[in-house]
Amino acid sequence: MAAQPQQRPLAPHLQIYRPQITSVLSILHRATGAFLAVVLVLLVWWLVALAAGPEAFETAHGFMGSWLGGLVLLGATFAFWYHFAAGIRHLAWDLGYGYDIGTVYKTGYAVIGISIGLTLLTYLFALLGAGGEG
Amino acid sequence: MSYRTDLGRVRGLGSAKGGVHDWWMARLTSVALVPLGLWFVIAMVGLIGAPYAEVAAWLRSPLNATLMVLFLGTTFYHTKLGIQVIVEDYVHEETAKIVSLAVLNMACVALAVASIIAVLKVAVGG
After folding, report:
1. Chain A residues within 8 A of B68 when measuring between CB atoms
2. What are the tens digits of pLDDT across the range A94-128?
3. Contact yes or no for B45/A126 (Cβ under 8 A)
4. Per-residue DSSP letters for A9-52?
5. CB within 8 A of B53, min separation 6: which ones?
6. What residues of B are in the A interface, CB distance below 8 Å?
7. What is the ipTM of this complex?
8. Is the pTM of this model over 0.80?
9. How confident is the model at residue A134 (pLDDT cuts 50, 70, 90)?
């Protein structure tokens, strides 16, 4: 056997391709899932702090109310709605629907629009609720 | 022709011996998370800015506590399966793969247990 491994052609990988809505949305589904997994730690903190008492709860709330916490929660809100909408699109694919390229593009843009729309709607309700309670 | 035996085909476990259980559970948990996730986001928006006593009272409601435990259990199961797929896709070195899978799976279970016990403490512990 030769010492050098034979140079066989390699299948083109991600970085070779021009970004397309299909690939970008697929990557975004995984990225939002990974981000939500990290943000889950905040939910655990919030619940454990609630169980620990008012002082710990105030500390957790203090972080959520800070600019960094607010930024993370904004990201989490979008990530949640994106993963939610794209997940339903995936379930439709699992059932065998929506595979022709025209439909894939249409549902892809719909997922982007719906996830941005639901993020805005969530913040609208959040602001209305905060305003209502004075 | 296929070399698979009838019994093997019926069991449907394939060469990995695990069959499609993880794949199927990822789908089941995602379907369950459609209503549970909607409930969670609506509930969280409703609790924005609420003081400690109000949030604790909210979680003491048996319905809210039940839904929160279901949401946490389903979410952490779904998260465990998702993390597992990512690790299996990107970590190729066998030792690193086994160790990272074990650590991340244990972290999911530990966080699930901690958060569910926290909910129960508030809901039941008074």
Report:
1. 47
2. 999 999 999 999 999 999 999 999 999 999 999 98
3. yes
4. PPPP-GGGSPP-HHHHHHHHHHHHHHHHHHHHHHHHHHHHHHHH
5. A54
6. 27, 30-31, 33-34, 37, 41, 45-46, 48-49, 52-53, 55-56, 59, 68, 72, 75-76, 79, 82-83, 86, 111, 114-115, 117-119, 121-122, 125
7. 0.88
8. yes
9. very low
